[in-house]
Amino acid sequence: GLITDAIKAGEILISEVLFNVKTGGADFVEVYNPTNKILDLKELTISNPAASGTTGPSKRVISATSVLIRPKTYWVLTTNPTIVQQHYDVKYPNQFVQMSSLPAFNNDQGSVVLLTTNGVLEQLNYNEKMHVKLLQDGDGVSLERISFAADANAIGNFKSAAQSVGFATPTAKNSQEFDSSIAKSKVSIANKVFSPDDDGFEDVLKIDFNFTTSGYVANVNVYTDRGVLVRKLQRNTTIASDGSFTWDGLNDNRIKGNIGIYVIKFDAFTANGKMESFKQTCVLAAKLN
N or C: which end of the chain has fewer CB atoms below 10 A? Predict the structure, then answer.
């Protein structure tokens, strides 16, 4: 048979987790092989230390026989591949490992730990607050990893799967995953002219942002074209890798700004000191009566 190297930290990564299932659903944990090697999942165990004690030891052997996973592939560990395939669009149905049991993963919080005989490969600490706030109901929505380069527990590195893909992407690339090869951070304003007159048309300025990594903190300020600060829009706000902020045209005293040109200054920084700054201009206009 094929001889595979012992798996080292960083060679098998946690990619996606479904812990709050729809009625009749099955939990799953997806793992990813970022290396250029074929790896064997046979040596690995999975656990949720948070669940042990209530259900006995929570460590589960992933597979008693060899499961060879090719480079850059995603594999799903679950007790019920059939149910997962019924609930979601599954691209590679052969990339499942059917386990007799998974550790119990509570809906509110827990940990997913991958281990070898030599210790922990990776640990993801999840909680339900990591889901996108706008979701009415997180049931049946997985958390997907955005960046394999960033730490599993980096703020914002796991995010609700997109609705457009059916709320989970078992066996396939994550809907929220970043393609770092093409990404360049940008801040843009699609409609640069806005008129905050409550007529329901372009009443607010929308500032879109898209960053190459997650975990940024943003300060967003509005200046007149002469450099006078009129509005502190965001102060040390942790942001998702992409999204938008709005300006309603009011200054810090909640008074509508004068008609004219304004400059939006968007400064973003990470905990490790990476800094990016952007400037965009806009026009605060009024209707001609």
Answer: C
